[in-house]
Amino acid sequence: MKYTKGSIGRVFLAKFDNGDILIDKLSELVRKEKIKAATMVFIGALNKGDLVTGPKKPVIPPEPNKVTFKNGWEVMGIGTIFTNKIGPQIHIHSAMGKKKNVLVGCVRGKSRVFLVIEAIIFELKGVKAGKDIDPKTGLNLLRIM
């Protein structure tokens, strides 16, 4: 295990509207406010999008098990944000439900908001960390410096 220590900087309250692409709008906020490191929590709903629900097999490098969802799902989640030379690196895990169905996984791509998502973003100051592609796994992993 590796770790770094820091403190909470600015706190943002964000409302994402119906039809917003969650990761794109979050990236816009991160760029505008020059956020280098943060964590976030959110509640609301997603209309349609993609989720990775673990690997197809537990091997390295993993092959993602992708699931497409549609027609409005209640959602709550947590994520991390680290900005590198490429831009914001956003990693969101969520639990979502519709009727008696439940999905849990990593929100990907062009997942669209249904009605609203309310998010609180906590900027992390002083942490010595970033995200880069790990050559062993091919994944964009946290790197503690």
Q: Would you give an account of this structure?
A:
By secondary structure, this protein is mostly beta strands. It has one helix spanning 22-33, and strands at residues 7-17, 37-55, 64-69, 73-84, 87-98, 101-125, 129-133, 140-144. Helices cover 8% and strands 66% of the residues. It is globular and about 45 Å long. The protein starts with 6 loop residues before the first strand and ends with a strand. Strand 7 (129-133) and strand 8 (140-144) form a beta hairpin. The protein is built from one helix and eight strands; from the N terminus they run βαβββββββ. The mean pLDDT is 96. The protein has a single domain (18-126), classed as Hypothetical protein, similar to alpha- acetolactate decarboxylase, domain 2 (60s Ribosomal Protein L30, Chain: A). The strands form two sheets. Strands 1, 2, 3, 4, 5 and 6 form a six-stranded antiparallel beta sheet that branches. Strands 7-8 form a two-stranded antiparallel ribbon.
The total tally of domains equals 1
Number of helices: 1
Strand content: over 45%
Radius of gyration in whole Å, from Cα? 15 Å
Oligomer: single chain
Coarse shape: globular
Question: Which keywords apply here?
Answer:
145 residues, six-stranded antiparallel β-sheet, single chain, 60s Ribosomal Protein L30, Chain: A, 8 strands
